Amino acid sequence: MTHNFDRIVPRQNTHSYKWDQSKKLFGNADILPLWVADMDFESPPAIKKALQDRAAQGIYGYTIRPESYLSAITSWFERRHKWQIDPAWITDSPGIVTSLSLAVELFSEPGSSVIIQSPVYYPFYDVIRMNDRQIAINPLLQNNGRFEIDFDHLEALMRDGAKLMLFCNPHNPGGRVWEHAELQRLGELSLQYNVLIISDEIHCDLTFPGHPFIPFASLSEELAQNSLTLLAPSKTFNLPGLQSSIVVTPNKELKRKLDYRLKTLSLHMTNYFVPDAIQAAYNDSDLWLDELLVYLRGNLTYALEFIAKEIPQIKAMTPEGTYLLWMDCSELKLDVAELKKLMFQKAEVAFSEGSVFGTEGIGYLRINFACPRSILEEALQRFSRAVREE
Ligand SMILES: Cc1ncc(COP(=O)(O)O)c(C=O)c1O
């Protein structure tokens, strides 16, 4: 490996959302944080260099997106995902959650139902509720420890009148990378019932062998016209603090409305650092990503084996993508408050507590395993010790 993912990069006192809030959020400053989805690895060297060069320029003025920024994006998706994006389909947005929220605001009626599949990344709930829409939940089914879509229930929700769906692929927290047949069926239903699909594909580059990622919009021209795809380099290259993402759609009318709203809110300008960082990411960081995926798989194997051996009462779901491990802790027979106490006070680790992903997440925890192996080992040891002492 060219890159050393074992290296510990101290993140305390760096204004880190993950590392500098333990006392405030969990009442314990000594916690090892493996919750919010950013990685404890340095970004690829090409990005660090691009940002250093950009910072060295010293004048931080209003910034344009050069053509080379758009071509870096389109060539990445063609190279890595065999998906041809026309640069004219791209809108910049400060964040995926911003885009999710704008999609709800622009493409559904106040009071109407918006479909999500639970358990799911918690802002999916927020953007529906905070825009005064109703949440229509299609709970995911579990089959042999793997999430599957309940298409009958989904169809019922569509038949009942929901016209918008927020879809997560790969799925957070379960790590499913939805397969062609599943996407196809979802696509057919969306066309049959005229439901617009907002496909959050932020984790698209983080998949494991045997689970190729398929962009929803790549299935057909019709589905591309009936969807917005939300993409970002932030998970892939550990850049969430740069606040950069894109929305892709060939549907001119949807794009026009989105562009207009972003301009209304003056969210259409780019950050000074973003174009250079994104070009370095998408042009010069393939090798880093390939090595990261090998390292993440090693972490995953380690975690799954450790849990099976040391804490067999906990059942972890094997993710097909993402760096998130969803664990069923219901056999511990602890309620939400007790699970939190076990993590934050007894074990001194912070995983994400499952109920925030929906009622289906009660009794679950989610581990972010994108950290040096030694941190993962320490966290799992602390946790298993605390479970044994329960
Ligand atoms: C599925 C999903 N969507 C969106 C985000 C956050 O995106 P952003 O920071 O661009 O709003 C995350 C972060 O964990 C995520 O897992």
UniProtKB/TrEMBL annotation:
Gene3D superfamilies tied to this protein: Aspartate Aminotransferase, domain 1, Type I PLP-dependent aspartate aminotransferase-like (Major domain)
Cofactor(s) needed: pyridoxal 5'-phosphate
Database matches in SUPFAM superfamilies: PLP-dependent transferases
Pfam family, one: Aminotran_1_2
Keyword Metal-binding found: no
UniProtKB keywords: Aminotransferase, Lyase, Pyridoxal phosphate, Transferase
Domain spans labelled Aminotransferase class I/classII large: 30-383
InterPro entries: Aminotransferase_I/II_large, C-S_lyase_PatB-like, Class-II_PLP-Dep_Aminotrans, PyrdxlP-dep_Trfase, PyrdxlP-dep_Trfase_major, PyrdxlP-dep_Trfase_small
Family to which this protein belongs: Belongs to the class-II pyridoxal-phosphate-dependent aminotransferase family. MalY/PatB cystathionine beta-lyase subfamily.
Name assigned to this protein: cysteine-S-conjugate beta-lyase
Provenance organism: Paenibacillus psychroresistens
Lineage of producing organism: Bacteria, Bacillati, Bacillota, Bacilli, Bacillales
